[in-house]
Amino acid sequence: MLVWLREVELKERMKQQDIEDLRQLIEFLKSHGVSEFDVDRGDLKLRLKFNPPESGPAGLGDLARLLQSAPQNVAQAAAASHGGSVPTAEPAATAETGLHLVRSPIVGTFYGSPSPGAAPFVTPGDHVEKGHVIAIIEAMKLMNEIEADVSGDVVRCLVANGQAIEFGQPLFSIRPA
User: Fold this and answer.
1) N or C: which end of the chain has fewer CB within 10 A?
2) What is the DSSP string of 43-77?
3) DSSP structural state of residue 94
4) With 0-12 CB in 10 A as exposed, 13-18 as middle and 19+ as buried, what is 56?
């Protein structure tokens, strides 16, 4: 990993809690094989590059799944990430037999609710009918409604709100009815 600031310089520029949050984020990313991570929020600019993992990089689906179980401050920082390319991999949800994956038809930014602060379109456990709007993907300043392509029960959302997604990336797992 490339380190530009020594720990003494970090302590002078950051609060102790910020340093601890950064350590947690680094350990989280390293433990899950993420090779690059970028955050650019106003006065906060952070870029981490790790040596390539020997067992292969984590996919975006894997990262989204792991963010759901991460500490809140780590999950928020990682969800705000943009840039860097991490190859996609099939999420663990497909290991459960009989689940249908709703995949992204376009590249863009995923939103699980119609507006900030609004209730999500769907949550795990909800029943959806084919054609029911389950998310929005913003692409080139256009909001594209994503509809369920099967009827059934939502098992899991596989991406984080505000996450950049790729074409064909799994968004939801649904148990067909």
Assistant:
1) N
2) TEEEEEE-PPPTT-PPPHHHHHHHHHHS-HHHHHH
3) G
4) exposed
CA 26 to CA 32: how far, in whole Å?
Answer: 10
Q: Which of 4, 1, 86 minimizes the C-alpha distance to 51?
A: 1
How long is the chain? 177
Rounded distance between C-alpha atoms, residue 70 and residue 67, angstroms: 5
Indicate the SS3 state at residue 136: strand
- What are 14-73's pLDDT values in tens digits? 677 777 777 787 777 777 777 777 777 777 677 777 665 444 555 555 665 565 555 554
d(CA 147, CA 102): 9
**Tokens found for residue 73:** 């401050």
Give the chain's domains with CATH numbers: 7-79 (no CATH), 92-176 (2.40.50.100)
The overall pTM is greater than 0.70: no
Show Cβ contacts of residue 36 under 8 Å, excluding neighbours closer than 6 positions.
47, 48, 49, 50, 84, 85, 86
